[in-house]
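Collaboration report, partner site 2.

Our partner group contributed sequences for two proteins of shared interest, and the home lab folded both. The records are reproduced in the order in which they were received, starting with the first partner submission.
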Amino acid sequence: MSADLLALTDVRMGFGDGPDVVAGVSLSMSRNEFVSIVGPSGCGKSTILNAVAGLMPVRGGTVTYQGEQIRGVNTAVGYMTQGDTLLPWRTVEDNVAMPLRLRGVNKAEARAKAAELLTMLDLDGAGRKFPAQLSGGMKRRALLARSMIYQPDLLLMDEPFAALDAQLRTQMHRELRSTVARTRQAVLFVTHDIFEAVLLSDRVIVIGGTPAAPTAEVDIPFGADRDIEGLRFDPQFVSLEKQVHDELSRARTLSRVAS
């Protein structure tokens, strides 16, 4: 598989003067690929995303995006976190349009693009509302629209649906897969949920140990047009879910032994 979009090579990272949190992390992604990272809590999954976003320096190794080594904040990627970062004093449309406005796009053009994405994500009529007027699922869709609006080739997503109930998560899973398929964007997705990882991904990377590093990689062969609703009943899906579960159990054991 061609690693023409993102490559981490022997990356080592930690906080302050503390020990390494991750070490020996090497992974790559192609364009239009959906890759999930799973691992024990606190093992450094979000740290890897922050390296790709350029929000945290590496102690060793390299992070390369579109052939260029990342040496500062990577404004070429979209980043959606678990938290609600919508500005409460701005309308939904203005929140979504904000990344384009910060890039110097005029208000009319930015709002038109925001309206287009809101329609794509089933938020027609919500543009003039304020975040406090939205349901949890609507806020998640608005945050997704904001992370996508300048059409980055890569979306970073850090447990973005963890706070949603099961029905809303299913809706967001369906909308995320269909939207990135249309926009041809790649996704690097961090989750603690094995079911979610197998449901959405083309590949699942398991990390573990202390410091953490990839311990296994599982290919998910269902394609971009997968049936999100029916896939969970597919025997192959169940088998892959068990495979990832077993690999994660081994990664947890490595983490406990190393600590």
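Second partner submission, folded after the first:
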Amino acid sequence: MQTIDSLLSESIGECRAREAGAFDRAHGTSAGIVLFGAGGLGRKTLQGLRALGMAPVAFSDSKESLWGQSIEGIEILSPADAAARYGKTATFVVTIWAEWAGRMEEQRQRLRELGCRTVLPFTLLFWKFPDLFLPHIQVDLPSRVHEQAEDVIRCADLWTDPASQSEYLAQVRWRLFSDFEQLSPPSSDMYFPADLIDRIGLDEHCVFVDVGAYDGDTVASFVDRTRGRFRRVYAFEPDEANFAAMQKRLAEMSENVRLRITARRQAVGNQNGSMHFSEGGGTGSKVGAGAATIECVTLDSTIAETPTYMKFDIEGFEPEALAGARGIITKGGVALAVCVYHLQDHLWKLPLMIHSFNPRYRFYLRPHGQIWETVCYAIPA
């Protein structure tokens, strides 16, 4: 069985040499690149390759409505046509990667079955040109894992159950080697995992705090899970369009439920005041960037009653929000669900941060997407 020590056994120098040469070794003598996936990631990759003078020979995409169109002069082909034209000569780089788009290995296998000889995940290409492409959400250089090896190893000792231990190793391995195959299949019960829900304590006395409430989807799931039996919900969402969508969703709930839900158009961080904010609706709105400003509050200064359960999904601003809830967490008794996939090191940084606030937690790691939607659950011992 692989251990965290064996995963980190190569030297940082060996790791840097490996990451720099991984794409070239796999690409070999292939002539040109086909980008499989014409969405946002594919377009980002196109921009980077153009800057390098390495424009791809084609796009390919499964979406039939895109076939025959082009992006900046690059034709979009069906997978079958792209394979027939370039499968034996070009490297196909998979630039489809989202929780709703299927697993990376499924995409690669599909292309292989069509006859494509060399099919690689985009991560290897991004490692080759880190100044252009990285960091890309949780994708970053493997050598940066080695730079934090002490914390990576310390965090490995926090996980309570074998499933969490195994998933942590698989996720560290993915960060080091872009190995998608050993990742666990995602589960669909995000924030309310069936095997942990009884330990969280969702009863009629529950106070739920939703940080990054988006359009109220998690609040609605919470109401369904509790069958409307709870004490209070506090939902924080800074984005104007998302907040409006949440208010519309809440308005459709019964008055008895709605009166116990407090929705606030505020960001949550480690200080009270105004923060820069990038809005625009959707799931990518982000505190700390952009031209807009938004009111920011700490949970310690805002939540008067003791929460039962707090969820954090705020596009990489989780450390600041946790710091602003240190008093609540230190006091104990509150269960936490914290997204740990927005940056490479959040996988170990955030559990260690929570542990430093309060060592009386049991930690669980559950994947609800392929790397995307990975959540650390910290439950009072």
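Feedback sent to the partner group on the second submission included the following. The radius of gyration is 22 Å. The first strand starts at residue 33 and ends at 36.
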